[in-house]
Amino acid sequence: MPTPDGKGYLLLVEDEHNLARYLQLELENEGFSADIEYDGLSGLEKALTIEYDLILLDVMLPELSGIELCRRIRETKDVPIIMITARGEVPDIVTGLDSGANDYLAKPFAIEELFARIRALLRQRETKATQEIVVGRLRIQPNARRVFLDEEEIMLTPREFDLLYYLVQNKEQAVSREQILTAVWGFDFMGNTNIVDVYIRYLRNKIETDPSVKLIHTVRGIGYTLRD
C-alpha cells in the first residue's frame, strides 16, 4: 500500500472511538495521514503489513494489550511508537518504555504537545535514515535496509540483512548461534541452529568477494564475530 502524501503516515490504535476519531481529525488537520484500529490484534496486523512513519498506541486495548502489541511490533520493526494511556504512574511509564516505546503521553493531554512529540520523533527518524555504518568496504544504511560494497549495491534478502545488521551491532564480539537465532529469527523459532551456518555462508558469498578480506569470522565452539 503506498504511503499517502503529507507530513507522515500514522497508525492510531485506540479503543475509545470518539477519542480515536477526534485524534484522527486533528492529525489530518495538521497535515498527517492516519489509520485507526480499535483493538490490539487488528493494530498488530496493520503495523506489521504497512510501513507507517509512526504509531500511536493506547495501553488498555481489547484482544491484545498495548504493552504486548508494542513488544511484538519491536520484534521486526523500528518504527517510532508513542504510547497514549490514562495511566501516568511511574511503573506504567517504565513498563511502556521497556516494551519498546519511544515516548509516553498520559491522558488528558494537549493536542499541541502530541504534535510536538510526533514531530520530534519524525525528525529523529529522518536523521537516522541519513546515517550510514561503515565496516571495511561495506556501507550499511539501516533504515533504508541497503548495503553497498564500495559503490556497488549488494542485494540481500530481509533475513540476510537482519543477520548482517545484528553482527554489525555486535562488532568485535563473539555471538553464539543461539543468540543469533533469538535476535534474527525470533524467540519462537523451533528450527535447528544449522540454519545460522547456512545464512552465514550466503552472506559471506555476497559481502566477501575478495578472498583476502574477511569480515565474518568463525569463533570455534561459540559462533561468529564480525571484524574489519
TrEMBL record:
GO biological process, one term: regulation of DNA-templated transcription
Keyword Phosphoprotein belongs to the record: yes
InterPro entries: CheY-like_superfamily (IPR011006), OmpR/PhoB-type_DNA-bd (IPR001867), Sig_transdc_resp-reg_receiver (IPR001789), WalR-like (IPR039420), WH-like_DNA-bd_sf (IPR036388)
Domain Response regulatory per the UniProt entry, residue ranges: 9-122
Domain (OmpR/PhoB-type) ranges: 130-228
Keyword Translocase on entry: no
Positions where 4-aspartylphosphate occurs in the chain: 58
Gene Ontology molecular function: phosphorelay response regulator activity; transcription cis-regulatory region binding
Pfam families reported for this sequence: Response_reg (PF00072), Trans_reg_C (PF00486)
Gene3D superfamilies in the cross-refs: 3.40.50.2300, 6.10.250.690, Winged helix-like DNA-binding domain superfamily/Winged helix DNA-binding domain (1.10.10.10)
Record keywords: DNA-binding, Phosphoprotein, Transcription, Transcription regulation, Two-component regulatory system
Regions recorded as binding DNA: 130-228
GO cellular component: cytosol; protein-DNA complex
Protein name: PhoB family transcriptional regulator
Species annotation: Brevibacillus formosus
